[in-house]
Amino acid sequence: MSVPLFILGTLTDGDNHPYQIKKNLLDVLPVEKLSEGKFYYNFESLHKKGYIEPIETIHRDNRPNKTMYRITKTGRTYLEEEIYHSFQTKTHMQDLYIAIYLLKYVDPIKVAFLLEDSIQQEKKKWEKNRQFNPAVEAQFDLLDEKTKEAVRLIGEHAFKNAYFNIEWMEKLLVFIKNYAS
Question: Labelling 126: which of 17, 71, 76, 146 has CA 20 to 30 A away?
Fold first, then answer.
């Protein structure tokens, strides 16, 4: 999951401060845990790269100061590029959550094209893994029975997950195509 993308997307909607953005992230998306340090590190990193900039600090009695931020033009360009990049290079389905949430900032037709390509790559990869490979079979035959059963169990889980992910990406593709219309 890309916390920096969420920060940039939130700031694209309007100026905000880190505490509120973190609260929004935790309220909207299924994030299990997000440390203060990691979250504020992302803010600082985006600031150093010139993607966001502070615009004012709000002082209130008996309350911590709140620094308001806005996204820069460079940040907007980076946000768009990274959303597309997420659909090209996902390694886990969860890597797409924030990119899906931020679809309104990119061309959904281009995203659909990228996702179609990802789906085809996944299908080819798993079809290749399903094919009989004499070298792998020879190694498998050298294993004891308990280890063979462990390998079968692992393989079953991997293939079921892969097919579930492909089905989910196909549903996502339908959603994105409808989003474009």
Answer: 146
Per-residue tokens: 36: 């203060």
- CA-to-CA distance for 103 and 121, rounded, in angstroms? 22
Are 65 and 57 a contacting pair, CB within 8 Å?
A: yes
Q: Calculate helix-pair angle for 73-89, 3-13, nearest 10 degrees.
A: 140
CA atoms of 8 and 2, how far apart (whole Å):
10
CA atoms of 179 and 181, how far apart (whole Å): 6
In angstroms, the CA 92 to CA 95 distance is: 5
Q: Rounded to whole angstroms, how far apart are CA atoms 61 and 122?
A: 56
Name which of 86, 83, 87, 116 is nearest 102 in CA terms.
83
Q: Which two tokens stand for residue 149?
A: 């059963």
* Average pLDDT along the chain, 181 residues, taken 10 residues at a time: 86 89 80 76 93 86 82 96 88 83 94 92 83 74 86 88 92 92 78
